[in-house]
Amino acid sequence: MNNIVHYHHRRRATLSNHECIVCCSKAIGINFGVPTCAPCKAFFRRNARRKEILDTPCHHFDVNSLKEKNTNINDRTIRYLQIRQCSSCRLRRCFEVGMKEELIRTHEENERYKNLVDNNRKRQEWLKQLQQEKKLSIVQHIENNNDLISKFDWRHLSNIVYAYDTCCVETYLEQRVNMFAHGTSQKELLMKHYGVLPMSLIISLISFLRSLPAFQSLVRSNQSFLCQNNIRRLIFANLHELNQSCFSEPWQIAIYKSIWEFICGPELYKQFAHIEKVAEKSMIADPIITRLWIIVLFFSTPLFSDYDSQSTTIKVKKNLSFIDIQNIYATLMWKYLLYRHGPMEAVRIYSNLILIFLNMLRVEISIHIRLQMEKDLAPLDKALDELVKLDINADQ
């Protein structure tokens, strides 16, 4: 009887990766190109280059006699026994199913692989240790940050938030009550009251800034300089903070939109609306930070400089008192950012504030130019300038 067993080839796509393609036992993964069990993997690695094994006669038992003795035995079990007991049949089966000799690593390649595994393990341990140290440093940073802000600083921050709420927010809400009567037609509002909205923003902002002891400590000429140069440049930033602080009915929001569209014009309003959306997404919703930021900007020298048409030079008033006050509020803001968010997040938030304000300033200056150039809007531009001048010259 011919004892040589011819195995039926099966398409690899029909085989499960959970079954050894050589002996049909449980596979541990893809080895040398095909799914195999651990013993077949080890057998092929040891014997793939020993071609003399293929020429060795098969010495496995008689298949027919095995079937006669065990009527319940199936072909899969028979193949498993034959493959495991005959090296020649097993190696031949390995090549038939597509195991690749060239995928077996040489001794030098094994050494390099072991070194690579060892280096990767050491790197993972180092990264794990680094992550633990980072977590520890964050905890220490939070503990150390408890000393960043003194009781005096907390009292100062509390006073700023309270001053904005009681002066700016309440003044704005009072103006808003008188601004529009519910049910008034939108056309009538645009024709008669479109200037009330920007004027109310200025009035509420001046009320807040004038309540600051730092502002009151300045001489009248410096107060006048800051208001005339910087108040109108902060309308957009103040509008954003008021929108965050005050609830508005849908009909009020629709009126605001119509007024700003009328003031800005179609093209400029697109920029205006875009910056509003960016600010809502990117600016942090923390009243302490946004209100401190408005104060820091107000004590700048100045936010917008007028040009002398004859000399083409910028008129800038350099005043150390402005810089000293701005440094106090900027330092307080930075300490609060570090306390709440840590160094990296503080830098990100500060960068966002600067970027958004620069875009707001660009749109606000464009609105200012439009108010000066459009005949129908020129009275509003003049009223806003007069409002700043008259307010600052009022008796304190």
UniProtKB/TrEMBL annotation:
Protein name: Nuclear receptor domain-containing protein
Record-linked InterPro entries: NHR-like_dom_sf, Nuclear_hormone_rcpt_NR1, Znf_hrmn_rcpt, Znf_NHR/GATA
Gene Ontology MF, one: zinc ion binding
Keyword terms, alphabetized: DNA-binding, Metal-binding, Nucleus, Receptor, Transcription, Transcription regulation, Zinc, Zinc-finger
Gene Ontology BP, a term: negative regulation of transcription by RNA polymerase II
Native source species: Rotaria sordida
Residue ranges constituting the Nuclear receptor domain according to the UniProt record: 17-106
Record-linked SUPFAM superfamilies: Glucocorticoid receptor-like (DNA-binding domain) (SSF57716), Nuclear receptor ligand-binding domain (SSF48508)
